[in-house]
Amino acid sequence: MVSSTAKEVFIQGITRDGRTFRPSDWAERLAGVMSSFRPGGPQPGSHLGYSPWCIPTTLNGVKCVVVNRELRDYEPMAWDFCINFAKDNDLQVAEACLLPELPRQG
To answer: Pfam families this protein is in (predicted)?
Structure first.
């Protein structure tokens, strides 16, 4: 269950019983489907990049999709699609905040 105050939800490519979710490019596929949902709406060529509200990434070796709460405010059905994707595939979901990377020194 996702709380109504979550800023970001991490859909992790690990099932509740600990198996790695397949296919291996699931995160990119899910984020690709959500590419047109973005601030200002879809623009010409917006399908060529990911939405800032649905970003595929890898954390600690686990594929994830970070879904921002703003997607829910903009298009509740798109948010529900992502959350239901996680439920339907028995994927682990965590609420967190994605921090920007610090510049490397040295």
So the answer is: DUF3579
User: Could you tell me if 52 and 35 are in contact, meaning their C-beta atoms sit under 8 angstroms apart?
Assistant: no
Rounded Cα distance, 83 and 100, in Å? 24
pLDDT tens digits along 10-54: 999 999 999 999 999 999 999 999 998 988 877 776 667 899 999
For the chain, list the domains and their CATH numbers: 8-96 (3.30.70.2340)
